[in-house]
UniProtKB/TrEMBL annotation:
PANTHER family: HEAVY METAL-DEPENDENT TRANSCRIPTIONAL REGULATOR HI_0293-RELATED, REDOX-CYCLING DRUG-SENSING TRANSCRIPTIONAL ACTIVATOR SOXR. This is MerR family transcriptional regulator. Keywords: Coiled coil, DNA-binding, Membrane, Transcription, Transcription regulation, Transmembrane, Transmembrane helix. The keyword Iron-sulfur does not apply.
Amino acid sequence: MKIGEAAKKAGISPGNIRFYEKKGLLKPKREESSSYRSYTEEDVERLKRILVFRKADLSVESIALLLEGKEEAKTLLEKQEEVLEGKMKELEGSLLLCRKLKQEEDPLKADPEEYLRFIREEEQEGRKFSPAEEMLGQISDFTAECYGGSGWFTAVFGRWADLVKLILGAGLWLFFLYMAAARFLEEPVSVSHIVFWSGLFLVYNLSFLKYWSNKRKTAE
């Protein structure tokens, strides 16, 4: 059968099928006469199985290991269960904090120390809160340091220090851009992945703009 029919039977788009083929999850045969891909009922069944595991938030890479027999399904699912439970705990903490803040007459004027104390107390009792802000902050500090012209950079690379920093900076920028863009093409789309990598890309750009602004002020 053609890709359109296979997509209809599997309940996904032809684009999804091409994506899974690109990732090596599906390898349909090609017709000798036309070189077009020819999909079988087994391929459709495999696509449905892939979709089920993706709905369990398993990565494409993990599913590939499962389908290739390189990973035991139950073992991988147990690991995934732990990951999802961790995410749920983080969401529980964040949800509790949102509800508490919502009770304030003006959440923006709420005492931050009171809430930080509340968060620490809850964390001591085992509740988790989203670590995203801390992670983004660490990336921001790193990129600012990278652009900031550290002494060791000059000591190691000498007169090539600025060029090396430029290459590394451009490389990091392209990496974050690629990871953010790739999350939009990921099938099915994972909102959490999009937010995370887009956030890193945004922080990196803001760090560069801050550095550039400081540079211009210094020059003036």
